[in-house]
């Protein structure tokens, strides 16, 4: 294999570590590690050849996966027989000009990452992490006997599914009563050991870090940089789907902040290796009630001050102490990034507008869309610019949110587009009259 990757400290401490070591932080300074690729070796292949290679899609060694179709850029040392894939990636990039005009931009695109096996973008990272663990266990040189994560829902679903496919025990820590029914039942159905703790996500995260100090239980949260390697492929897919042209902006919901650093990493690799000529600007979109990154941004990223995240419909980003803050700040600075927030009413309104344009958006996508509208009103995003919004999960995972909106019971939101069913007698004349009244509105 001519390509290789290894762990290195994000703060520049000396030392390299195998991507198959059970290690998450730098032994010298405690900073997070990142996966570093041999870029000189990758650069020996011209950009045109990489474009042609990726144009082959998920054939042959891609095994139906958009992630593993880019294996050389993701985890080159993985042996094909240890790859655990459920057909993740290759998700659609949808042009949504009608929705865009309502938000103040003419060239809006939605990257539908929720059109994936477990219904969220977390599949992209989990295929890499579980595949690596599969190889570690198969080769018999690792103490790992289970994988574990703290989750607001989507991470646990992805971990449980991929671990089940590999036959690896999974343990998930969930904040009791703070995730949707659809998110809770996924890891239960996949046979994971589901621990519902009387705390929030940040409390779950503290406990899972304690538990995984025992190296026999492998940490699967995004502070594990193997997750980032899979999730970075969404940025590469976006520019590939746009004919290897970067958009002006990419906007994504942001909670624990691993995803924005992953997005930046994939785009930076594409730029450094000549596949794209310029970089887009990035926007981290936060819920107003879980906004530590936004508050730090207003202070010039001087420090992270954790907050106690309040109740929000965007439950997957209800995180007050993001573990990937340092990586996210570096990404935003490198990409001339912006951070903005959305209220409960703003995110519900934006999600409803997306639904009426045929998209069926999760509340987190609602946060990102609301932020697009705010930045357009502020003149930061110009109407003629090309904007891509990353939709992180499928709306069907948040049916309670949708039902509450259309029943008019969603907390702190005005249901301006409420559309409850019309109850009528089984009378054709009454039905015709009602249809006429509705169509005349």
Give a summary of the structure in a few sentences.
This protein is of the alpha/beta class. Helix content is 39%, strand content 14%. It has 17 helices and twelve strands.
Describe this structure in words.
- Helix content is 39%, strand content 14%.
- The chain is of the alpha/beta class.
- The protein has a domain at 93-119 and 228-407: Rossmann fold, CATH 3.40.50.
- The strands form three sheets. It has a six-stranded mixed β-sheet, with helices on both faces. Strands 7-6-5-8 form a four-stranded parallel β-sheet, sandwiched between helices.
- It starts with a strand and ends with a helix.
- The mean pLDDT is 95.
Question: Which properties best describe this structure?
Answer:
single chain, alpha/beta, 39% helix, globular, four-stranded parallel β-sheet, six-stranded mixed β-sheet
Spell out the blueprint of helices and strands.
Blueprint: E1 5-9, E2 33-37, H1 39-43, H2 47-55, H3 71-74, E3 93-95, H4 97-103, E4 107-112, H5 122-139, E5 146-150, H6 154-166, E6 170-175, H7 181-189, E7 193-197, H8 201-211, E8 217-219, H9 225-231, H10 233-241, E9 249-253, H11 258-272, E10 281-287, H12 292-298, H13 325-334, E11 338-342, H14 344-356, H15 363-377, E12 386-391, H16 399-407, H17 428-440
Parallel strand pairs: 4-12, 5-6, 5-8, 6-7, 9-10, 9-12, 10-11
Antiparallel strand pairs: 1-2, 3-4
Helix pairs in contact: 5-6, 5-9, 6-7, 9-11, 10-11, 11-13, 14-15
Uncertain ranges: none
Helix count, DSSP H or I runs of 4 or more residues: 17
Distance between the termini: 65 Å
Radius of gyration using CA atoms only = 22 Å
% residues in beta strands: 5-15%
Specify the biggest β-sheet: 6 strands, mixed
Q: Do you know the CATH topology of the domain at 93-119 and 228-407?
A: Rossmann fold
Q: How many beta-strand runs?
A: 12
Helicity level: 25-40%
pLDDT averaged residue by residue: 95
Q: Identify the CATH class of the domain at 93-119 and 228-407.
A: Alpha Beta
Structural class: alpha/beta
Task: Encode the helix/strand succession as letters.
Answer: EEHHHEHEHEHEHEHEHHEHEHHEHHEHH
What is the oligomer described by this structure? single chain
Biggest sheet strand line-up: 3-4-12-9-10-11
């Amino acid at each position: 294999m001519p390509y290789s990757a290894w762990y290195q400290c994000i703060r520049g401490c000396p030392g390299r570590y195998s991507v198959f070591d059970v290690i998450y932080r730098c032994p010298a300074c405690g900073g997070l590690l990142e996966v570093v690729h041999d870029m000189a070796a990758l650069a020996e292949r011209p950009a045109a050849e990489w474009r042609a290679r990726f144009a082959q899609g998920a054939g042959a060694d891609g095994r139906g996966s958009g992630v593993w179709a880019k294996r050389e850029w993701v985890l080159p040392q993985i042996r094909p027989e240890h790859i655990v894939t459920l057909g993740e990636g290759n998700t659609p990039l949808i042009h949504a000009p009608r929705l865009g005009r309502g938000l103040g931009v003419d060239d809006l695109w939605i990257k539908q990452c929720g059109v994936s096996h477990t219904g969220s973008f977390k599949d992209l990272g989990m295929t890499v992490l579980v595949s690596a663990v599969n190889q570690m266990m198969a080769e018999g040189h690792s103490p790992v006997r289970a994988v574990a994560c703290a989750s607001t829902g989507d991470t646990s679903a992805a971990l449980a599914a991929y671990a089940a496919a590999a036959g690896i025990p999974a343990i998930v820590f969930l904040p009791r009563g703070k995730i949707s029914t659809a998110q809770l039942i996924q890891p239960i159905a996949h046979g994971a050991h589901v621990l519902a703790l009387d705390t929030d996500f940040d409390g779950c995260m503290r406990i899972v870090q304690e538990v995984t100090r025992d190296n026999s239980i492998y940490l699967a949260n995004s502070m594990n940089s193997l997750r980032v390697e899979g999730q970075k492929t969404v940025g590469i897919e976006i520019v590939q789907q746009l004919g290897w042209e970067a958009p002006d902006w990419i906007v994504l919901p942001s909670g624990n902040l691993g995803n924005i650093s992953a997005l930046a990493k994939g785009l930076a690799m594409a730029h450094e290796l000549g596949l794209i000529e310029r970089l887009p600007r990035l926007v981290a979109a936060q819920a107003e009630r879980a906004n530590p990154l936004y508050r730090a941004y207003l202070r010039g990223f001087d420090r992270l001050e954790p907050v106690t995240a309040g109740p929000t419909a965007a439950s997957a980003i209800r995180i007050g102490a993001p573990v990937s803050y340092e990586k996210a700040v570096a990404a935003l600075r490198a990409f001339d990034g912006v951070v903005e927030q959305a209220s409960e009413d703003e995110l519900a309104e934006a999600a409803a507008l997306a639904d009426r344009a045929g998209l069926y958006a999760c509340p987190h996508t609602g946060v990102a869309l609301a932020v697009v509208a705010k930045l357009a009103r502020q003149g930061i995003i110009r109407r003629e610019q090309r904007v891509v919004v990353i939709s992180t999960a499928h709306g069907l995972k948040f049916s309670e949110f949708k039902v509450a909106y259309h029943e008019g019971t969603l907390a702190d939101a005005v249901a301006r587009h409420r559309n409850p069913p019309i109850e009528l007698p089984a009378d054709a004349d009454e039905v015709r009259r009602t249809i006429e009244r509705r169509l005349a509105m």
